[in-house]
Amino acid sequence: MKYINAKNVLPDEIIKIIQEYVNGEYLYIPIKNGEEKSWGEKSGARESLKRRNAEIYSRYNNGATVLDLAEEYYLSDKSIRRIIGAEKKLYEKTLKNKKID
């Protein structure tokens, strides 16, 4: 998030009203309800982690060990096991939904 000078985006009348309450201080204006973004949406971090986790699950299914994956991805073996479990559930849910269709 970057700061924007109010003079560049707000009319003088609004600036004068705001100055009555907050004169020269920083003011955070929240996003409108319903327009919030989930964590990682804007930066792409969420999508990157989804790809990484799918890759971990695929490599595990192709014979990579939990310890090898933990070392390669700089994660604990517990984290790798959690990722594998979550990806397995997601995979099974996808299969189940395809059978219903």
TrEMBL record:
Organism field: Clostridium simiarum
Highest taxon, organism lineage: Bacteria
NCBIfam families for the chain: CD3324_fam (NF040785)
Name of the featured protein: Mor transcription activator domain-containing protein
PANTHER family: MU-LIKE PROPHAGE FLUMU PROTEIN C (PTHR37812)
InterPro entries xref list: c-mor_Regulatory_Protein (IPR052411), YraL-like (IPR049739)
